[in-house]
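If your schedule permits, I should be very grateful for your opinion on a structural question. The matter concerns a single protein, recorded as an amino acid sequence and a row of backbone structure tokens. Could you please explain, in whatever detail you think fit, how the structure tokens follow from the sequence? I set the record out below, with my sincere thanks for your time.

——
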Amino acid sequence: MKNALLLLTALAWASVSLLAQESATTNRKAPELAFNLPGEGQKLLSQYRGKVVALEFILTTCPHCQAASRVMTKFQQEYGGRGLQVLDLAINGLDQGRTPKDADQLVEEFSRNYQVGFPVGWIARDPMMAFMGFSLAERMVVPQLVLIDRKGYIHYQTPASSNDEWEKLMNESAIRQHIEELLALKTSAARSSLNGNPVKMARKTP
């Protein structure tokens, strides 16, 4: 009997913990984010309000990021007319003592080399980590993808580490499905659709 009570108590606490985790990701509005685009200077994420935004954080030297840019270029061409805006932001632009001008040149070269069909900019690592809600103690992989509705609410984002959930969300067919879902979501209903539903964010496995 005592063991049964202890088990029930443990299950109850586990349920409370899961509910608390889900509550923390419900109705998550995308924080403001400042980044730089070559030839345009500093831009704000909020300037793209009214569009479905597929935001990727990349390393220009990462083969997975290079491949992802090709996939996202295809989506931009296919869905841009319906309101999709893809953005790539390199987090290595200021590495190795590069200046902002050097960072501009780096992402311009990336865009040319991989025939990217959408804006590619750069951002420092710290604001990216803060935006994603990642801890410095977490081992992060790239690319990191965030899908944001027309009202500026995050519906999907990748976890910091590479695991089954990261792979699942970064699958091309899954990205397409989520983009189509957000494009079909009416602007007036974007926020209300999140009520009671957590942001789809895979959690890091122990």
About this structure: The longest helix spans residues 2-24. The chain has one domain: 29-201.
